Shikimate dehydrogenase (NADP(+)) (Clostridium scatologenes), 290 residues
Amino acid sequence: MAERITGHTELIGLIAYPIRHSSSPAMHNEAFAKLGLDYAYLAFEVGNEELEDTIKGFRAMKVRGSNVSMPNKTVVHKYLDKVSEAAELCGAVNTIVNDNGVLTGHITDGIGYMEALKDAGINIIGKKMTIVGAGGAATAIEIQAALDGVKEISIFNRKDEFYARAEKTVKDINEKTNCKATLYDLTDLDKLKEEIKDSYIFTNATGMGMKPLEGQTYIPDPSFLRPDLIVVDVVYSPRETALLKMAKEVGCKTMNGLGMMLFQGAAAFKLFTGKDMPIEHMKKVLDIKY
Ligand code: NAD
């Protein structure tokens, strides 16, 4: 690092609270070093109260860009000049790019999901997906899948504080894309089984399966799945959730959340640098298997 940082090195930030646990600095700095790019990526512990000043500081210092995580993802758009269509529909920004003083907000989580599928040789364009979730990760996936050309999306969520967000997502998808979206209550397990039955892919985009819900799934038994169904879990810790374990036993092709995490970073990296992240190198260095 001492050899790498010079007077020309450009800064890319990550603003969230808490953030010290994040693997993004390691991922981006490794990729910069591998490609010989003159950037440094640093995490800043910033919450909503310091957010406006932070963005002003980024502008003043001509910082190239920043990633954004909670609690700032849904608030930061107020301080930017523009947001992408997906970020607008998601109501969230996870990447800011500064092009000569013009700050644009993007969301790369959904792109990460779609690219990870492509990388695994899975094509869901023109097909039907059933997905559980209405939070940040789920909304980004649902919106991006619809924008990219997935034909039909059946969304399930329990009737908690996220349900209204799913209602908005369904309305936006049906009004603004060619995809047909429908929302169901997750307590209707007969309906869930029926919707999964003619789906090409099933995705869990909730925290189910991860601490404190580790070892649990809302899928009651393996009869909900079939060998030619693709099953994705956005959870990456643990790498194999109870859902993925059941899906593997049934014989489904499965994918955990590590691919989405890697490719959302790669999409941000491309926006910051204009270069492709060296994916195979990153998989090796970060021990990413999905
Ligand atoms: P969030 O808080 O925005 O949303 C939580 C979602 O989980 C909601 O849909 C909520 O209804 C649902 N939920 C919570 N408890 C539940 C339960 N007991 N039963 C059924 N549903 C329940 O969270 P988020 O940011 O969308 O994250 C969700 C998961 O996605 C987390 O496990 C997170 O680690 C993972 N994630 C992965 C990536 C990736 O790159 N792979 C990116 C973001 C988030």
